[in-house]
Hints:
By secondary structure, the protein is of the alpha/beta class.
Amino acid sequence: xxxxxxxxxxxxxxxxxxxxxxxxxxxxxxxxxxxxxxxxxxxxxxxxxxxxxxxxxxxxxxxxxxxxxxxxxxxxxxxxxxxxxxxxxxxxxxxxxxxxxxxxxxxxxxxxxxxxxxxxxxxxxxxxxxxxxxxxxxxxxxxxxxxxxxxxxxxxxxxxxxxxxxxxxxxxxxxxxxxxxxxxxxxxxxxxxxxxxxxxxxxxxxxxxxxxxxxxxxxxxxxxxxxxxxxxxxxxxxxxxxxxxxxxxxxxxxxxxxxxxxxxxx
Length: 266
């Protein structure tokens, strides 16, 4: 198996520094890290990749059976670590990849030294006292809309996810990223993302973890970030003075600074 080709693995930065492995979220690819990479690459080795089905990954490697759960993506992350013989990795997961990172670290903590969970959500659906931000009816409507008109859904949802209506170019970029994704693959990944429930996996995390949330985020509200922080033993919580679900684009300097401070600690 050609893991490097399958996941379009790219390395940059310092060979003598700690290794950061950056995992992008739904509808995105590694390009969305581009504004934080230069700052991170000054101090760290930075490894980027595309989830199968995204960006320049090998689409022939995608199967609905494997990627119907987040475990399939977590397996790929560990494949990348093994292929590059990465150890003591700082795994940075954005959005749904935050929970993919949790699963990977829980499965093989010998490879993962630290986690950075950027705008994470372990469960998007409200459940009793837990507030995920959406009702099950909301999620069903979202998935039905995506299924019936993916391009139209992308044009409506991407600006909501991005936030920052005063900077429409950010929403446009995310819309274009969504539209580059095969609709059939996007539908499965969306269902996997929005119907996943990884709350029970959080207390099992045994590596130092930084939870990074935005002050305003329509997809992962502050209550969710606090929930993740409170259930991962010894974790740290940083709230960026940023709006939206993609601070690596909307607030890259602040995002890079939070990651750098955490990686350099302990």
